[in-house]
User: Which sequence fits this backbone?
């Protein structure tokens, strides 16, 4: 199965700043996804990262707040912009053939905003 | 609200005992998946069961699916301390996208 590396693993950021999270996969994958997981809670899909085109965002998530890039089939970034304490969460990258098939997850980025 | 709802929210057992977690969902599905998440890590896929299947096994894991009751269960037999983790079910009822439940936190005491 794919090996997924996420960076950074954790960060503490100031309110109003932005942070870019990187997701690197060791093989070419069809689909890459970004999730948010608030402490002790379930996962919420933010968007599907599309190679060479704009990401597909889920309801409640917008490109201005969570810009996503996917320049090739092995790499994607998620930026959390103009952060507020409500953005404190775990952000997870996953890959798979589709959203209703088994996904492989990175270990996540634990983000705290002061 | 989340499509899948697990119960119990938390479960604590002794090593060697069996652990059973349940997942209920609201609408028709094509498949249901179970994942494990160790503390501080990402999710690991355990089993996928299709809507036309009733039971699946993988090692010490047994998953059942009852589409008439819209429920699934995950049984871990002969539990080990290393099974301590959160377990999530995910269904694909939302336009084919996996929707995760709130999870069951399992603690296995040595």
Assistant:
């Amino acid at each position: 199965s794919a090996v997924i590396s996420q960076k950074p693993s954790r960060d503490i950021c100031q309110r109003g700043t932005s942070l870019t999270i990187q997701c690197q996969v060791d093989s070419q994958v069809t689909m890459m996804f970004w999730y948010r997981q608030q402490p002790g809670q379930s996962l919420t899909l933010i968007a599907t990262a599309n190679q060479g085109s704009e990401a597909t965002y889920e309801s409640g998530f917008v490109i201005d707040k969570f810009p996503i890039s996917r320049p090739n089939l092995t790499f994607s970034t998620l930026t959390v912009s103009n952060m507020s304490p409500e953005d404190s969460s775990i952000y997870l990258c996953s890959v798979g053939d589709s959203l209703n098939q088994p996904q492989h997850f990175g270990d996540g980025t634990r983000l705290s905003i002061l | 609200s989340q499509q899948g709802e697990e119960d119990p929210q938390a479960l604590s057992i002794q090593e060697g005992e069996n652990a059973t977690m349940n997942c209920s969902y609201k609408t028709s599905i094509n498949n249901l998946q179970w994942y494990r998440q160790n503390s501080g890590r990402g999710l690991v896929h355990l089993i996928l069961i299709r809507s036309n299947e009733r039971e699946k096994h993988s090692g010490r894991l047994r998953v059942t699916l009852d589409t008439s009751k819209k429920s699934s269960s995950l049984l871990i037999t002969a539990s080990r301390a290393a099974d301590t983790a959160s377990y999530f079910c995910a269904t694909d009822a939302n336009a084919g996208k996996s929707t995760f439940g709130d999870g069951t936190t399992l603690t296995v005491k040595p």
Q: What stands out?
A: Residues 35 and 45 of chain B are 5 Å apart (CA to CA). The mean pLDDT of chain B is 92. The longest strand of chain B covers residues 85-94. Chain B touches chain A at residues 2, 30-31, 33, 40-45, 48, 88, 92, 96-98, 100-103 (CB under 8 Å).
